[in-house]
Amino acid sequence: MKSNLFIKYFELIDKRASVLDYGSGDGPYKNMLKAYFKEYTSADYQVTNQHHSIRPDIFIDDNQQVNVDDQTFTCVVISEVLEHIYKPHNALNEIKRVLVPGGYVIGTVPFFMWEHEKPYDFHRYTYFGLKRMFKDNGFEIIKLDYVGDTIGVSAYCFSKVFSVFIKPFRKIKPLHFVLKLI
Ligand SMILES: C[S@@+](CC[C@H](N)C(=O)[O-])C[C@H]1O[C@@H](n2cnc3c(N)ncnc32)[C@H](O)[C@@H]1O
Question: Where do the domains of the chain lie, and which CATH numbers do they carry?
């Protein structure tokens, strides 16, 4: 859970804003986002959402689109989702469409993570891959940085070698980002 990380960046955003939780899954951030923002909308890809416990307010279609008007949201949260989107540029384009000018995107991606949500697991991003992709898609990068520490990385490698899957150490230095629509 990256609640504390997200809350730090919410200070950039007007509390009266509306937020889209893009790829909401089991909705781990739903309560936190509802508490902070005036309006909360969850969206998830219909095909993969059936394996999750919560249905979203709206579905994301095969072209990564959602049925909402242009410039509806002030913030989009996209947590551990980009790796599941075969054509991430389509998703970034749609996020741009539904964001107000100057709106924010806050998200995370894993780096060293076993395949999950199979077969809908397509990418692992590097720092430089994300940087170029966000810039190419017209976002200003407010923050792009790693999450986690060396101990976590070491523990993960250790657990892999010995096939001991210690849950808290599974994710290795995931990246997080904060973008502003130019
Ligand atoms: C690892 S879960 C993350 C869920 C939640 N955001 C979180 O942080 O716990 C990945 C999510 O991506 C969604 N997903 C998979 N393919 C997608 C796609 N093409 N477009 C949007 N979301 C997708 C899944 O339905 C799932 O909710």
Answer: 3-146 (3.40.50.150)
Name the DSSP class of 118: T
How many Cβ atoms sit within 10 Å of the Cβ of residue 124? Answer: 14
Q: How far apart are CA 162 and CA 118, in angstroms?
A: 23
> Residue 48 Cα, ligand 1 centroid: separation in angstroms?
7
Q: How far is the CA of 59 from the centre of ligand 1 (A)?
A: 11
- Residues 121 and 82: their CA atoms lie apart, in Å, by 9
Give, for ligand 1, the residue of 33, 47, 55, 84 to mutate: max count of ligand atoms closer than 8 Å to Cβ: 84
pLDDT digit string, tens, across residues 95-129: 999 999 999 999 999 988 888 899 999 999 999 99
